[in-house]
Amino acid sequence: MSDSRLNRRTFLSLSGVTALSVAGIGAGAGPASAADGLPASPLIRVEGNTGPAYFREVAVHEGTVIQSIGFDNVNRRLYYAQLIGGGRQLAGESAPLSGGTRDLHGDLAITEWTLGADAADGGGTGRITGYMYLRGFGHGVGFGVEPSGTSTYLWTEVDAVQDTANETSRGRRLCRFKFASSSTPLDATSTSLQKFTPVPGSVNNTASIDPINNRLVVRYSLNGMHYRIYDLAKARAGDFGTPLAEIAEPAISIDRNRFGKPSFQGYAVAGQYLYMLHGNSYGYTQDHDDNPSTPKIVISPPGEGNTHLTSVDLNTGSIVTTFHSKAGYTLPFREPEGLAIQIPQASRPDVFRLCMGFASGETPGQREASVYYKDSLIQL
Question: Is residue 195 classed as helix, strand or coil in its secondary structure?
Fold first, then answer.
């Protein structure tokens, strides 16, 4: 999220957290019905604070905090999404725009990193090889990365709907487009975009991709936040008739006196399991007890934070584990932002990891990005 408008994310994330509902039962879920269930798959162990750094405090194209991350596991690329920073003037604009205006308009920047030779073994080297500007898309809470030959296609939100009360926007639909580095912005009205409406009547649409099973994950709001899982090839062809799985987003249960209500910061899917990321930047304060007469408290103290990782069974909609993660706790500035599945070696899709993005960098306007990961797989 943008540094100067932290309360917006809390409001939006809390409005989207719903009571637990099993696949397809939630109000407003629509006429589609999930199949018999996803096949059993390994579970990434979210517990433990020893997850190593994949990248630590690396530069990205904009100076804003990252919003989400994604991997092209075939072509060995890493992508970061951010809001476009204040003071930048793009083609067709009469003057530079502020960061607040960019957020309200849904203007995003995508940075491409090509991973180095040793990164497949966890070395974490790479370099910036491209960037794109997206105008009128949304906030960038999540996006999907789809390899296609030597090219990379992105699935993002699009057709941003402005929320003037909270000075932000969210995408009404999804779209797919080829990543092509350019200083010329890609507008939401471009005819080069494939646009989709997986769930009619929904808002706050974002996407992710399960790279192990070639499935599209759609997170959307319709009487609460929900997830649907689709076969990627069918989704690409516009077929959203029957999801492979469908659940309402479960509310995490944590110690509110200690951690408050952490903001929703990202999600990823691998096989049978959904992973969710919640948390706030160090020093974040919140009215944790809904009593305006009591003072706000720091719910994300430096060196500890309130970052939580949660695993969810997509066949039942129930939470498997929620864990308070201190990964990257030594970062001077640390805000959890984005989850993604990485396959370090394309020849071994059975060996994968859950990567957590963190906005880092001590100076506002000069933020950096860090990525930590979990790779302990268990079979339940």
Answer: strand
83 belongs to a structural domain: yes
- Give CA–CA dist 200/12, Å, rounded: 21
- Domain residue limits at 15: 6-378
The enclosing domain of 20 has a CATH number of 2.115.10
Residue 125: the pLDDT is 75
Residue 175 lies in a domain: yes
Q: What is the DSSP letter of 255?
A: -
Confidence at residue 265, expressed as pLDDT on a 0 to 100 scale: 98
Please, which residues have CB within 8 angstroms of residue 114's CB and are 6 or more apart in sequence?
A: 76, 77, 126, 127, 129
State the pLDDT at residue 208: 98
User: How many structural domains is the chain composed of?
Assistant: 1
Contact 371, 54 (CB under 8 A): yes
| 112 touches 369 (CB < 8 A) | no
The C-alpha atoms of residue 237 and residue 216 are separated, in whole angstroms, by 12
Instruction: Give me the pLDDT at residue 21, please.
Output: 31
Burial class (CB in 10 A: 0-12, 13-18, 19+), 229: buried
pLDDT of residue 18: 32
List, for the chain, all residue ranges whose pLDDT scores fall below the cut of 50.
1-33, 119
Asked if the structure places residue 213 within a domain, the reply is: yes
* DSSP H helical ranges for 62-142: 99-105
pTM of the model: 0.89
